[in-house]
Write a structure and sequence with these properties.
Length: 76
């Protein structure tokens, strides 16, 4: 069965069945991601960010401000 056929089959189900299928798929995906090793280059980036936080040099932006900036950038 191809991906398109599988998706069509899921979409053809009643709402509660489709939700249960998607919940199971999401749980499976989450487990795979959580049990996968972090690539070395990603770990390096995370370590650098943690170092900045611990040194008090990290700059944070709240979601409302970031969303506004992204929407304004998209409009131009």
């Amino acid at each position: 069965m191809g991906i398109e056929q599988a998706i069509a089959m899921i979409k053809s189900q009643d709402l509660s069945t489709e939700a249960a299928i998607l919940d199971d798929i999401w749980f499976d995906l989450q487990q795979k991601v959580m049990n996968s090793p972090i690539p070395a280059e990603h770990q390096l980036i995370l370590d650098e960010r943690l170092d900045k936080i611990e040194a008090g040099q990290a700059i944070f932006t709240d979601w409302k401000t970031l969303k506004s900036k992204l929407l304004n950038a998209k409009a131009h």
